[in-house]
Task: inverse folding
């Protein structure tokens, strides 16, 4: 009898361990099993050089782990302009450019709808999780191509789960695609993570419980101090903490540390967007989603989680790439990446998860900082240019609303008015050209007429980037091209959107299932990410893909191993 009890107890322990092992390492018995989970990480406004510039700050298990254990694509560029958040996220996950997926900017004037349009706006849906009506009226309906996450679900008969998470609505919605189970973004007015009726009728219990912790409110009243001694910050050697070209929080006297969020009485939880705390909150929700949605728990099925860390962009705009603030933000983001990778490795095993990390664009240095270093750069007052052009057109063509919008460095002409006045587009273009021929605007390099073969005489690289960023009826008639490191209208802080390397050169790191330890130096387009995932997961390509799969060299290594085995025989 005693022997039987011992035998039964032994069998129960074996079964329990077997179940536990299957949950932690689904499909581990098959070497060629597809990953059960893909995690796509986008760092908003991350320049490629940050990986080296802040390298000495990073611990062993964040950015450095991705570079040490995975593949580092060091020559990855955006192949279009304007380089903004919405088109960047859309291009990463569709494998194509605005010319095909239709996300021509964060905002654009829509000639068909005859109004300015936000990239993910959708008034047919309602907010879920907050009383802030407009915050949740969002969906991917303006995205005109499928994403890699859409294709994963289609290939799996819709059984796979897909979730997108970001502080920014566009950073959550566009990567998750049309078929997503959920997308969650942050509503600063309520301090909640919210969604829309496009995805659900109510927030899941776990998201409501997460919101009930009021973590955002706690962060919003926690002062932001340097996380390391001042002498360790490389940016401190070139840029004083307090200066005239950085912005400041409204409750601070200057732009220097510490930043007194504890004085915050007016901005509420919204303030955490421009601090490392916004990234902490994003990482916490992402891990909660992995746990509560049981992503990656089903063998032979690939789930998809996209995470966009948005705070880097808000901090970058306020303070710039050479600030202590951006450096400290990346020090703390490295810890968030560490926590996420550690969780993935412990829960699933590195061989069952595929992770990639990239950015939606880079950024220019702050013009004031550049000028202090005796480097070229400046601020171009485009409002004054457009106002002057409007006045000129009124004089030459008669009074009228000739320019109906200026967005994405593009001038949108009033095509209806031009037609009603019986004018030819070429005549109006010639009139505009005469204006710019007779006026010199510092920082303006050239004006390109998109409707009258204005691209023909441009350098090939600039011509291609402009043409790949133009979508009919969502893009303007003329494009303004600025000189390097000249930005629009901002006397403090910085921006992005240009065709130059500081805006287009971004990191691309791969880690996990089937990824070799390698540095890849050949040229890679941001559009190559999605087809690489398709090849790795053996799923159909997104509908408008123009990129090509990245060659990690596994086949070469396999061939070398096979050749060695034959020689030994």
Result:
């Amino acid at each position: 009898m005693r022997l039987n009890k011992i035998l039964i107890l032994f069998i129960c322990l074996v079964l329990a361990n077997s179940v536990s092992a299957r949950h932690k390492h689904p499909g581990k018995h098959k070497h060629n099993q597809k990953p059960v989970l893909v995690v796509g990480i986008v760092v908003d406004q991350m320049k490629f050089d940050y990986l080296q510039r802040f390298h000495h700050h990073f611990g062993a298990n964040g950015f450095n782990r991705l570079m040490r254990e995975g593949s580092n694509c060091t020559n990855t560029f955006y192949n279009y302009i304007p380089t903004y958040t919405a088109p960047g996220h859309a291009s990463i996950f569709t494998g194509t450019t605005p010319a095909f997926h239709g996300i021509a900017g964060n905002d654009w004037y829509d000639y068909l709808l005859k109004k300015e349009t936000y990239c993910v706006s959708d008034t047919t849906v309602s907010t879920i999780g907050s009383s802030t009506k407009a915050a949740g009226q969002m969906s991917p309906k303006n995205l005109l191509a499928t994403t890699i996450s859409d294709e994963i679900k289609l290939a799996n008969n819709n059984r796979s789960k897909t979730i997108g998470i970001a502080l920014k609505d566009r950073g959550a919605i566009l990567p998750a695609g049309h078929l997503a189970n959920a997308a969650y973004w942050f509503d600063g007015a309520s301090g909640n993570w919210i969604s829309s009726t496009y995805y659900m009728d109510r927030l899941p219990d776990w998201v409501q419980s997460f919101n009930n912790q009021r973590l955002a409110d706690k962060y919003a009243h926690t002062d932001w101090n340097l996380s390391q001694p001042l002498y360790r910050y490389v940016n401190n050697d070139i840029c004083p903490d307090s200066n005239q070209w950085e912005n400041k929080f409204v409750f601070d006297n200057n732009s220097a540390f510490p930043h007194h969020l504890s004085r915050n009485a007016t901005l509420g939880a919204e303030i955490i967007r421009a601090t490392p705390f916004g990234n902490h909150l994003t990482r916490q929700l992402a891990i909660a989603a992995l746990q509560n949605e049981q992503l990656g728990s089903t063998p032979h099925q690939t789930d998809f989680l996209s995470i966009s860390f948005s705070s880097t962009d808000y901090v970058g705009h306020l303070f710039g790439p050479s600030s202590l603030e951006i450096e400290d933000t990346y020090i703390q983001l490295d810890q968030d990446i560490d926590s996420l990778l550690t969780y993935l490795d412990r829960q699933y095993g590195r061989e069952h998860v595929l992770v990639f990390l990239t950015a939606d664009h880079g950024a220019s240095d702050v013009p004031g900082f550049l000028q202090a270093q005796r480097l070229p750069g400046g601020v171009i007052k485009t409002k004054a240019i457009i106002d002057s052009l409007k006045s000129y057109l009124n004089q030459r063509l008669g009074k009228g609303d000739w320019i109906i919008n200026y967005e994405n460095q593009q001038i949108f002409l009033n095509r209806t008015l031009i037609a009603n006045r019986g004018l030819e587009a070429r005549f109006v273009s010639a009139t505009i050209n005469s204006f710019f021929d007779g006026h010199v605007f510092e920082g303006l390099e050239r004006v390109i007429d998109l409707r009258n073969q204005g691209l023909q005489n441009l350098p090939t690289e600039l011509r291609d980037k402009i043409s790949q960023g133009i979508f009919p009826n969502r893009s303007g008639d003329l494009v303004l091209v600025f000189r390097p490191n000249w930005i629009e209208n901002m006397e403090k802080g910085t921006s992005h959107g240009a065709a130059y390397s500081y805006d287009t050169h971004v990191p691309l790191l791969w880690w996990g299932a089937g990824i070799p330890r390698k540095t890849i130096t050949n040229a890679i387009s941001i559009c190559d990410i999605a087809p690489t995932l398709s090849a790795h997961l053996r799923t159909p390509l997104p509908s408008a893909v123009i990129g090509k799969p990245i060659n990690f060299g596994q086949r070469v290594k396999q061939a070398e191993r096979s050749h060695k085995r034959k020689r030994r025989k």
User: Anything to note?
Assistant: Residues 5-31, 555-569 have pLDDT under 50 and may be disordered. The radius of gyration is 25 Å.
